[in-house]
């Protein structure tokens, strides 16, 4: 497949897609999208993705956005279903088991949009926090946001009572999404050490996901440095 991924540094969904790409051993062309210069609002990009979000996958003219859809597509293609795709996805499961795992595939959206609601019509997910600090240049993280992020940690802690990973006892594409969300939330509310199952889960992902450092940590570190620089300027 001749794949192109449109990306930004630091984005949890982009990193989730990068983890999947690395797990599958795919060769991908990367195209950086500068959000600060509003390249995602230019006509050429909007033609690919009217939602003007990243990541965006271009597979020989077939366009997908949303990291969940992209990862599901990548592991479901014929060449991958004969390799590691069934392990990362749920192809070999019975319909009831597969349905439960599909629910957990979007757990990152559940914890962000349901658990971290800020006000009517406004969601306080990691994207909103990034916007608040880096784009809107606010100087604080509201206490209510901190409380709700702790609720997220508690929720994931509960899910991890049953399995080693988020949907079963081996890595699936659901883990790519949730680990990138958790590690981003930890930048804002660095209290994951208070949740032993979550902390152990992140370490398992770090140790067992292929190219975790390159696919997740390096981009996360870029975002963390930008966040800390912004907070340091705000304190002057």
UniProtKB/TrEMBL annotation:
Residue stretches making up the GST N-terminal domain: 1-82
Highest taxon, organism lineage: Eukaryota
PROSITE patterns noted in UniProt: GST_CTER, GST_NTER
Cited Gene3D superfamilies: 1.20.1050.10, Glutaredoxin
Any one Gene Ontology molecular-function term assigned to this protein's record: glutathione transferase activity
Pfam families found in the cross-reference section: GST_C (PF00043), GST_N (PF02798)
GO biological process: glutathione metabolic process
All residue ranges annotated as the GST C-terminal domain in the record: 106-227
InterPro entries registered for this protein in UniProt: Glutathione-S-Trfase_C-like, Glutathione-S-Trfase_C_sf, Glutathione_S-Trfase_N, GST_C, Thioredoxin-like_sf
SUBUNIT field: Homodimer.
Family stated for the protein in its record: Belongs to the GST superfamily.
UniProt protein name: Glutathione S-transferase 1-like
Gene name of the record: LOC103512787
């Amino acid at each position: 497949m001749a794949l192109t991924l449109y990306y930004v540094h630091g984005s949890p969904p982009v990193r989730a897609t990068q983890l999947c790409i690395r797990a599958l051993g795919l060769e991908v062309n990367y195209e950086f999208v500068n959000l600060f210069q509003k390249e995602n609002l230019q006509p050429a990009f909007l033609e690919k993705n009217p939602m003007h979000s990243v990541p965006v996958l271009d597979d020989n003219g077939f366009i997908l956005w949303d990291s969940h859809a992209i990862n599901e597509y990548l592991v479901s293609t014929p060449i991958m279903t004969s390799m590691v795709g069934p392990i990362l996805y749920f192809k070999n499961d019975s319909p009831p088991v597969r349905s439960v795992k599909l629910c957990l595939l979007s757990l990152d959206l559940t914890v962000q949009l349901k658990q971290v609601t800020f006000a009517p019509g406004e969601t306080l997910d990691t994207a909103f926090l990034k916007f608040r600090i880096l784009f809107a240049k606010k100087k604080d993280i509201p206490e209510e946001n901190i409380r709700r992020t702790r609720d997220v940690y508690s929720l994931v802690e509960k899910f991890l009572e049953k399995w080693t990973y988020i949907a079963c006892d081996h890595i699936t594409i659901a883990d790519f999404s949730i680990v990138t969300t958790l590690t981003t939330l930890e930048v804002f509310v660095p209290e994951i050490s208070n949740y032993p199952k979550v902390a152990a889960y992140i370490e398992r992902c770090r140790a067992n996901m292929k190219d975790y450092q390159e696919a997740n940590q390096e981009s996360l570190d870029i975002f963390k440095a930008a966040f800390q620089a912004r907070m340091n300027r705000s304190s002057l």
